[in-house]
Amino acid sequence: MTAAPILVTGGTGTLGRLVVPLLREAGHTVRVLSRSAREAETGVEYVACDLLKGEDAAIEAALKGVGTVLHLAGGPKGDDEATRNLVRAAQKTGVQHLVYISVIGADKLPVAWLKTKLDAEQAIAGSGIPWTTLRAAQFNDLVLDVMEKMAKLPVIPVPGGMRFEPVDAREVAARLVELTLAEPAGLVPDLAGPKVYGMADLSRGYLKARGKHRLMMPVRMPGKAGRAYRAGDNLAPAGAVTGRRTWEDFLAERVG
Questions:
Q1: Mean pLDDT value of segment 248-253
Q2: What values do phi and psi take at 156, rounded to 5?
Q3: pLDDT more than 90, % of the chain
């Protein structure tokens, strides 16, 4: 076991629940920072703290003795502020490696949520602490959640020209653990799924797996965001790493 624990923010979320066991399997003790307290497990300590509230003393206490931080915590808003709070505490406590999960297109898409991800990236890059940032595509889990909600409608709207390359969360988790245990590497190649799908393709795949039938209606996404998505600014650039598990593989496991 290593003497210094690895701190994982958002360690109870979709990605965190996959990352923590992998870090344990690699022989590391883990300290999980989350909003609610939990009982400790073998090799895993849980610390209750809300990064968004800027509880400086509590964040610094959570970082005590930590050399590496894997920052997975995120939400629909406030990622930039939460990250700045974490960075400020990390600077005071001697953290030596900050690892961050961001989103492909954070630097291109005119979407408010993605702007907070980019601001968070910049806060980490400008912290003076050695860092690594991985931008990933949308997880299959998120796409499934969207498809489930849309399938409740009598007619599914399909924004024309919007394409996605969903990636399996387990592959993202494995890559993040690899990066966390390696030397700081700055902005590493993006990670996306192995195939590009239009919204209609994703919807049809989900409906087929569920044995459902719905009408689909083409719609046009307006404004700058619509133009950016149609231009593929959310897709992985050249040089990106691609996973192996497809949307169809995921559906067969989770839905089929």
A1: 96
A2: -90, 120
A3: 89
Contact 147, 208 (CB under 8 A): no
Return d(Cα 102, Cα 235) in angstroms, integer. Answer: 14
How many Å apart are CA 221 and CA 111, to the nearest integer?
13
Crossing angle of helices 112-125 and 79-93, rounded to 10°? 10
Q: What is the mean pLDDT of the chain?
A: 94
SS (H, E, C) the chain: CCCCCEEEECCCCCCHHHHHHHHHHCCCCEEEEECCCCCCECCEEEEECCHHHCCHHHHHHHHCCCCEEEECCCCCCCHHHHHHHHHHHHHHHCCCEEEEEEECCCCCCCCHHHHHHHHHHHHHHCCCCCEEEEEECCEHHHHHHHHHHHCCCCEEEEECCCEECCECHHHHHHHHHHHHCCCCCEECCCEECCCCEEHHHHHHHHHHHHCCCCEEEEECCCHHHHHHHHCCCCCCCCCCEECCCCHHHHHHHHCC
Handedness of CA 21, 24, 26, 31 (dihedral sign): positive
Percent of the chain at pLDDT above 70?
98
| Residues across the chain | 256
